[in-house]
């Protein structure tokens, strides 16, 4: 098909680009928000490029991070001093620096053991925070009050939030000694520490991979028998399998929940894996593949004395790799992205899959959208990376599902 | 013998399944004993004529499994294992046809067994539960026949609310989704540059988990700081907690007041739908693109020779020849609409203001797992099952006639 050359081409590209911009926007917005401080995320006019992505801030973050701990991840180690310079030009009222204590804490060793010295040098205030205690900390939150009477002032590291307090401006940093990575990925690190995402990822990967491998094994055996072995009762088995296709997932939620509870399997990996091991989709897909292989291959193997078992393993399986990849991708996606089933059959935090962990985190994070978007980004990262690595397989697998 | 071997194996597996049912309190010890004895008897029958040492060993293992299975359920797996030990001895003395019978069943049993235990039996169990009164883990429940169905269909406004929402969901997302996807797929199929890049971008939402995607849209819809309100210049608009129907909202300035079902889906539910269309569009585009690429080029060349316009080619070649794919997507979206859950739970955790975003799946979850009323939820599930079944059949009958399968 050819459109009327130029005008048509322009229309096509305009529509396609506009469409892809809408499709991609939520991803951009998720990523951008995940790099913002709370105040930046809650601007009336959207901030397109977060402060944390600006290289000018990275140098300061690295220097301050190196003072407190390491250049990459920063920190506030015992015995270290972090020096913040506030360039004011002239000497006016002394800025007041405090370390905010978490609400509802009896004592805060970080604030109690920090020595704060403020001195005026040539045109700037030099604020030195020294960790005099024995304990090291991951973060150094700092609050600084500076008089509004200064016409201008400049800071090395942009504060995360600025608010007005009477005669002063109150500037605050969630971490004054972040290091480069600790600065850019602040929300990611905080989200990672706020909930056991490592455990969630393990649960998701473990259950999804087991489902893929176990399901593949079971589906390959059944598909091979249905495609290549004549046996009495084959039609019956086949129609039974087709019949199960008609049962929607909702019908199975309650009875399977009861079965699992009677087996004592609730809140275990079994509950997440076993009910979905046998996949009708997989059986159909692989059967289609095996049917398309030439019969001669199997006859030759039979004459050479190969049993059905070794025909399956030596001939059918190696020749159906594309089908198995399609099945694997779909099953993995389904298991990794599932929310309803894990929500029903697990209840302890240790058994949560990543989606369930994210759902719980949404409840806990409240209005900290930076951390929330960081957690969301983390949760989709493995799938998106996998998609970019095996794009062809993903797309072909989906396309194949639509063609009879 | 031969098929006797398959029978022996089959009865062995059945014995294991019955042992499992006993464990699940669906069957008694007696039925297990019966099944196990039947399996062993079939074994003896299979052995007849060719009594080999390994066959006897297999039978002995089966017997041990039967006994041990009384105490530890999983030890009943020794019964089918015994069949394989026996087979090892027999293999050389068995005809080709009998080998097929044995291996065929041996290979399908794991899948069939799992499907029976986790899909077929539970489906019937759900049906049975729906006839009971308030079945849950506490106390006894009695058989009440169709009471749950009667309450559900005649006295439960929430069920009809959820049905109405499902209807609107289909009525909005299916035509808009398929329409947009068809447009995009046709445009992508024009030899555009960077086709791969476009396809990647369009497909990306589909592989993202709904949970994360919904979290992002929740943030975009945020009334105070959300991007959408900034874009549309409607600060403070509560996208996800406005229960007013959109038809009512649009027509109110004209002096027309609509209420109930005819007020249309609530603003909040339309927001959920927009997110769902975004999520599913990439899948539809990729499937349609594959369908488009299957249409032979000759048709277009012939049409061009006859001087057909671009639109004529789309209307008279692409659309009819794409109809099997469109039909497939239509069926899939229809079934999918009955299962909308995740995005609703994340965007409107309680089912929205006045339950305006309640979907059937969410209602089922609420009834079953928040109110712990398993029987009522089962009745709901059975009704959904029947509806999907009827709709699919009607679709087959009515719509599929218009589908052009052959080029």
Automatic annotation (TrEMBL), chain A:
GO terms for biological process: transmembrane transport. Residues 201-390 form the ABC transmembrane type-1 domain. It is found in: Cell membrane. It comes from the Bacteria. Signal peptide: none annotated. Keywords: Cell membrane, Membrane, Transmembrane, Transmembrane helix, Transport. The chain crosses the membrane at residues 12-31, 200-224, 236-258, 270-291, 312-336, 369-390. GO terms for cellular component: plasma membrane. InterPro entries: MetI-like (IPR000515), MetI-like_sf (IPR035906). Coiled coil: none annotated. It is a multi-pass membrane protein. Belongs to the binding-protein-dependent transport system permease family. This is L-arabinose transport system permease protein AraQ.
UniProtKB/TrEMBL annotation, chain B:
Its main location: membrane. InterPro entries: ABC_transporter_permease, MetI-like, MetI-like_sf. The keyword Transmembrane applies. The chain crosses the membrane at residues 6-22, 29-47, 67-90, 102-128, 167-188, 200-220, 267-290, 327-354, 374-394. It comes from the Bacteria. SUPFAM superfamilies: MetI-like (SSF161098). CDD domains: TM_PBP2. Keywords: Cell membrane, Membrane, Transmembrane, Transmembrane helix, Transport. It is a multi-pass membrane protein. GO terms for biological process: transmembrane transport. Residues 163-395 form the ABC transmembrane type-1 domain. It is found in: Cell membrane. The keyword Transmembrane helix applies. GO terms for cellular component: plasma membrane. Belongs to the binding-protein-dependent transport system permease family. This is Lactose transport system permease protein LacF.
């Amino acid at each position: 098909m050819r459109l009327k050359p130029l005008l048509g081409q322009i229309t096509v590209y305009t529509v396609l680009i506009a469409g892809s911009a809408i499709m991609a926007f939520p991803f951009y917005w998720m990523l951008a928000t995940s790099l913002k401080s709370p105040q930046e995320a809650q601007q009336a006019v959207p901030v397109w490029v977060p402060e944390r992505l600006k290289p000018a801030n990275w140098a300061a973050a690295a220097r301050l991070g190196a003072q407190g701990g390491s250049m990459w991840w920063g920190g506030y180690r015992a015995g270290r001093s972090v020096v913040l310079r506030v360039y004011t030009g002239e000497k006016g009222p002394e800025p007041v620096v405090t370390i905010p204590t978490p609400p509802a804490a009896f004592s805060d060793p970080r604030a109690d053991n920090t020595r704060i010295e403020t001195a005026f040098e040539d045109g700037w205030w030099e604020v030195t925070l020294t960790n005099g205690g024995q304990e090291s900390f991951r973060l150094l939150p700092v609050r600084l009050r500076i008089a509004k009477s200064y016409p201008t002032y400049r800071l090395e590291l942009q504060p995360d939030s600025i608010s007005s307090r009477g005669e002063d401006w109150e500037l605050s940093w969630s971490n004054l000694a972040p290091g480069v990575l600790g600065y850019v990925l602040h929300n990611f690190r905080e989200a990672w520490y706020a909930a056991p995402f490592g455990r969630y990822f393990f649960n998701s990967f473990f259950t999804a991979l087991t489902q893929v491998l176990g399901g593949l094994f079971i589906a390959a055996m059944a598909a091979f028998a249905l495609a290549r072995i004549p046996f009495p009762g084959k039609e019956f088995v086949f129609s039974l399998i087709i019949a199960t296709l008609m049962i929607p997932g909702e019908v199975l939620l309650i009875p399977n929940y009861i079965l699992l509870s009677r087996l004592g399997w609730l809140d275990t990996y079994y509950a997440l894996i076993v009910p979905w091991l046998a996949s009708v989709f997989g059986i159909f897909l692989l059967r289609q593949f095996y049917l398309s292989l030439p019969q001669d291959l199997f006859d030759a193997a039979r004459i050479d004395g190969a049993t059905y078992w070794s025909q399956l393993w030596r001939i059918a399986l190696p020749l159906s790799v594309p089908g198995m990849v399609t099945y694997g991708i779909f099953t993995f996606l389904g298991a990794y992205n599932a929310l309803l089933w894990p929500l029903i059959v697990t209840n302890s935090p240790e058994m949560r899959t990543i989606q369930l962990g994210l759902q719980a985190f949404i409840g806990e994070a409240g209005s900290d959208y930076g951390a929330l978007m960081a957690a969301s980004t983390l949760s989709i990262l493995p799938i998106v990376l996998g998609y970019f690595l095996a794009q062809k397989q993903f797309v072909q697998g989906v396309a194949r599902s639509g063609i009879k | 013998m031969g098929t006797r071997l398959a029978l022996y194996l089959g009865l062995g597996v059945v014995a294991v399944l019955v042992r499992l049912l006993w464990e699940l309190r669906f069957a008694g010890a007696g039925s297990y004993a019966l099944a196990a004895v039947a399996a062993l008897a079939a074994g003896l029958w299979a052995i007849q004529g060719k009594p080999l040492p390994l066959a006897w060993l297999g039978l002995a293992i089966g017997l041990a499994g039967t006994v041990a299975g009384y105490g530890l359920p999983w030890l009943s797996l020794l019964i089918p294992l015994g069949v394989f030990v026996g087979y090892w001895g027999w293999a050389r003395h068995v005809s080709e046809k009998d080998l097929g019978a044995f291996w065929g069943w041996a290979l399908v049993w794991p899948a069939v067994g799992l499907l029976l235990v986790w899909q077929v039996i539970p489906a019937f169990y759900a049906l049975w539960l729906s006839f009971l009164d308030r079945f849950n883990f506490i106390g006894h429940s009695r058989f009440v026949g169709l009471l749950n169905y009667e309450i559900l269909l005649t006295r439960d406004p929430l069920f009809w609310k959820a049905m109405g929402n499902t209807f609107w969901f289909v009525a909005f997302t299916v035509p808009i989704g398929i329409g947009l996807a068809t447009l995009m797929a046709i445009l992508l199929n024009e030899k555009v540059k960077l086709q791969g890049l476009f396809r990647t971008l369009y497909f990306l939402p589909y592989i993202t988990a709904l949970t994360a995607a919904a979290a992002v849209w929740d943030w975009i819809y945020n009334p105070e700081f959300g991007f959408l309100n900034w874009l549309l210049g409607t600060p403070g608009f509560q996208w996800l907690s406005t229960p007013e129907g959109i038809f009512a909202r649009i027509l109110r300035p004209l002096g027309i007041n609509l209420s109930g079902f005819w007020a249309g889906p609530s603003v909040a539910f339309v927001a959920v739908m927009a997110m769902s269309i975004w999520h599913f569009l990439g899948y539809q585009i990729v499937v349609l693109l594959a369908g488009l690429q299957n249409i032979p080029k000759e048709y277009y060349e012939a049409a061009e020779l006859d001087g057909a316009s671009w639109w004529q080619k789309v209307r008279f070649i692409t659309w009819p020849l794409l109809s099997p794919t469109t039909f497939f997507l239509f069926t899939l979206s229809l079934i999918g609409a009955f299962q909308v859950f995740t995005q609703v739970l994340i965007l409107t955790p309680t089912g929205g203001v006045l339950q305006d975003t309640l979907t059937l799946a969410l209602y089922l979850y609420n009834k079953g797992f928040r109110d712990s009323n398993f029987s009522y939820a089962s009745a709901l599930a059975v009704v959904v099952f029947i509806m999907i079944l009827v709709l699919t059949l009607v679709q087959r009958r009515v719509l599929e006639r218009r589908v052009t399968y052959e080029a």
